[in-house]
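New here. Invent one.

***
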Amino acid sequence: MKFLKNISLAILLFIGVTAAAQTYRFETSGVSMSIKNAKGKWSPYSDFKEAKIVVTLDTNKDRIVVYSEVVQLYTILGYDDPKTSKEGSIDTFQCVNVDGDKCVLAIRSLKGTDVKQLYIYEDSRVLIYNMKYVKL
């Protein structure tokens, strides 16, 4: 009987975790970039350029996809605890890109606005996308 209770509890927990996983869709309005030079020094961020693309965060498949001209696919290896400050909140993801390189992606929500920013931290560059959440 205890075995059946444990199995039932495990099934309920699995259903609860599965139900919480979902897909989020964002539309970007601009992109900025900083590049690391051969001496390891970062360039200033570029001015934001218009970029009308879609970004998805799929917690079911543990991936983030940036549908730019060249599709950027990031597999999420780990979810860091969300952080909050007086400026807003940040959700950070430990990822790997399609080349197998580790990188960090972060979604910042700015307090008092519906603007979010996606930061993609790679070894030689950082991309920032301004974006808004779009309900599916």
Summary: The longest helix spans residues 2-20. Confidence is low (pLDDT under 50) at residues 1-19. The first strand starts at residue 23 and ends at 35.
